[in-house]
Amino acid sequence: MTQIASPAAKKVGLKAALAACLLALPLAFAPAAHAAGDAPHIEAQKWSFSGPFGMFDRGQLQRGYKVYKEVCSACHGMRLLHFRNLGEPGGPEFSEAAIKALAASVEVTDGPNDEGEMFTRPGRPSDAFPSPFPNKQAARAANNGAYPPDLSVIAKARAGGPDYIFALLTGYSDPPAGFELASGMNYNKAFPGHQIAMAAPLSEEVVEYTDGTAPTVENYARDVAAFLMWTAEPKLEERHKIGFRFMIYLVLLAGIAYLAKRRVWSNLEH
């Protein structure tokens, strides 16, 4: 025989279910809260390209490219970047002669020739940045099993962007007392888990600046982080300019609409 629950019983059951949900809610979010608490703190830096009117510093981008070429390019490629991009508006804006010289400083594999063989030649402005390794297996073999990521869009692929890159490059230190560092790993306070396979790539005076900028790890890290932000967002300045023009257009449109409204309603009695 089917029994129909009374309204009072239904009310009691609803309260019990609600109470159970409220008790389970903290448990459901506990792992996430714990994980967030373990995440390294990334301090926000001041960048010339931040904000709606931000612009890249040309000198900083040129220094950042120099750091990438002399340090980072030994392990990390940039397959989406071509030498000609270094002269485009909004970027480092190297001269045409400088770009040709930079491209010619690397050997590029080309071919096949008429005999069906591959050959090497000096780079051209139309060439992409060369990869330091022929394949992923070779890259892993040379880096203790870790694969160095491509840096073309790394500033957009990592939370924090240039802030994270700067923190990572300046975050190397000796591990604190009691910290167990795995074999072949390096301590870095900005890296999740604080253990990273990449050794500290920067040191004082490892890159020679020609514009008088101090050759410090902090300056190297800041310059290459800005350069990597540009490679990830080469049209950032153009977007900012378009946004500014659009805001002016909206203000003018609002003013015209207001004057039109005043004109239309001025002859009507209220």
Describe this structure in words.
A hairpin with a 7-residue loop joins strand 3 (186-187) and strand 4. 19% of the residues are buried. Helix 6 runs antiparallel to helix 7. The chain is built from eight helices and four strands. Helix content is 44%, strand content 4%. The strands form two sheets. The chain has a two-stranded antiparallel sheet with strand order 1-2. A two-stranded antiparallel sheet has the order 3-4. The protein has helices at 7-38, 58-70, 96-104, 136-142, 154-157, 162-169, 217-232, 236-265; strands spanning 107-110, 119-122, 186-187, 195-196. It is mainly α.
Query: What does the average pLDDT come to?
Result: 87
| Main beta sheet | 2 strands, antiparallel
The amount of helix comes to: 40-55%
Mind telling me the CATH superfamily name of the domain at 58-78 and 133-173 and 187-255? Cytochrome c-like domain
Uncertain segments are 1-5, 7-37
Please indicate the percent range of residues in DSSP E strands (runs of 2 or more).
Answer: under 5%
CATH topology of the domain at 58-78 and 133-173 and 187-255: Cytochrome Bc1 Complex, Chain D, domain 2
End-to-end gap: 72 Å
Could you name the key traits of this structure?
single chain; 270 residues; Cytochrome Bc1 Complex, Chain D, domain 2; two-stranded antiparallel sheet; 8 helices; 4% strand; extended; disordered N terminus
